[in-house]
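Researcher: Can you fold this with 4'-deoxy-4'-aminopyridoxal-5'-phosphate in place?
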Amino acid sequence: MPYAQSAQLFARGCGVFPDGTTRATVERDPIPRYILKGEGAYLIDVDGQRFLDLNNNFTTLIHGHGFSPALDAVARLLRDGTCFSNPTVHEIDLAELLVDRIPAVEQIRFVNTGTEAVMFAIKAARAFTGRPGVARVEGAYHGSYDWAEAGQGGTPSTWGSPDAPVAVPAYAGTPASVADDVVILRFNDAEGARRRIAAAADRLACILLDPMPSRGGLIPPDPDFIAAVVETARNYGILVVCDEVLNLRQSYRGASARYGIEPDLIAAGKIIGGGFPIGAIGGSRRVMSVFDGSAGRAKLAQGGTFSANPVSMVAGRVSMEALTELAFDRLEELGDRLRAALTAAIDRHRTHHVISGAASLFRIHPKRTLPHDYREVYPLPHETASMKEMTRFFRNEGVILPDGAAGCLSTAMSDADIDKITDVFERFLVTTPVSAGEAR
Ligand code: PMP
C-alpha cells in the first residue's frame, strides 16, 4: 500500500477525532495523506511520496512551503515572545503595508482567521447601519459565521426557484431567524440582485460579495452584476463588504481593485499571514470608526487573545513585501499560461471540459461551456465521479489537485511545473475510463 504510514496515523486519528481529522475540508481518497513536510512547490508525505501542491493550504501559501525570508524573520522573533497583551511595532508594519496597497483600506483591525474577519465585517456593518441583515451570493463560501454560511451549500432539492433562492441553513438546528436575516443573490444575475436587495433594503446592513467565489466556480463577475449590487446598495445606505480572504491574491491591490469595486469594508486572511493564522477587517475611516473605543466603549468591541500576535504579523509583512508588483505579474503569467495550455488540451481532445479562474487561480469544470453561477457549476452525479477520477489520476502522477479541481499556483512554481500539470491533464483526457467518458 503506497500510504501505509498514513493509514496507521489515520487509525490513531479515528480514535480521537469524530471523523479521524479535525477539518471538514481534509481530502480523503480513501484516507487522508499525512504530511511530513513541505518544500517550496512540493509536499512530502509520511510514506515518502512527493507531490506538486496545487492546494497550498487552500490558497494560503502564495510562496509555497517553507518560504525562507518569512521563516528567518519568525525565527529571529521567537525568543522575544510569541504573544502579548500589549501592541507591538509588528502590527503597525503589516497594517501600513496593507493600507498602502489596498485602495478600500484606510484603517484595519487584525483577527486570527478569515471566518472571524467576515464575522467582524458583518458586525461592523450592523453597528454602522443599525440593521441586522446580510445579502450574499448563492453557493459562495465565507467561513462559518451563521449569517455568512447560510446559502453556501444548497443543492437542487433545497436551493429554491431561480427568482427566490433560499438561504439554506448550513447545519440542522440553525436558528430560523438566521434565514430571516439572510437574502440570497444569484451570481451574475443583475436584475435579480436589484430586485432582492431593494425588497429587503430596510433590514440589510451589508452585501457580502466575493468578486470571484471559489466554490461558486471561480467564474468572472459580470460588470453589470457588480454595478447593480453596488448601485443598489448605495441607494439604500447598505454597505458593500468584499470578502477577499481568498481573492486578495488576485493582484497587488487585491480583488476589489481588480474588478473595479469600491467596497466600504473588506475581509482578508490567508496570504497576509505568511503561513500563520490571520484575518483582517479593513475599510474607510468612517466605517472603521465603529471599532474605536478610545473615548469609552466602542460601538463594536473586537478583541481576540491571539489577534495581531507578532508571529503572524512579521511572517505576513515579510511575505507580502516579497509580493511585489513584479511577483504578481509573474504569477499572472504562469496562470495565463496554465489556463491556455489546459484549454488547448481540451480542444485537441474535444472533451467537455472548460477552464475558469484568474491570476494564480484555476478550475477545471466537467462542462461544455463556462457556467455563469453556482447552479450551473453544480456537478451532476457523473460529473462528480469523473472529477474524482481526475483528482485520483493527478495524485497517482504526483500532483495534488484539490477536490473540485480548483487549484492555485505559488511563486515557488516554475514553467516546468506548469508543463507537468498540463501533461498530466492531457494524459488524463487520453486515458479517461468510462465515467469521465460520459462527460465527453
Ligand atoms: N472567506 C473565503 C472567501 C474563504 O475562502 C475562506 C476560507 N477558505 C474563509 C472566508 C474563511 O477563512 P478561514 O478558513 O481562515 O476561517
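Model: Folded with 4'-deoxy-4'-aminopyridoxal-5'-phosphate in place. Residues 433-437 have pLDDT under 50 and may be disordered.
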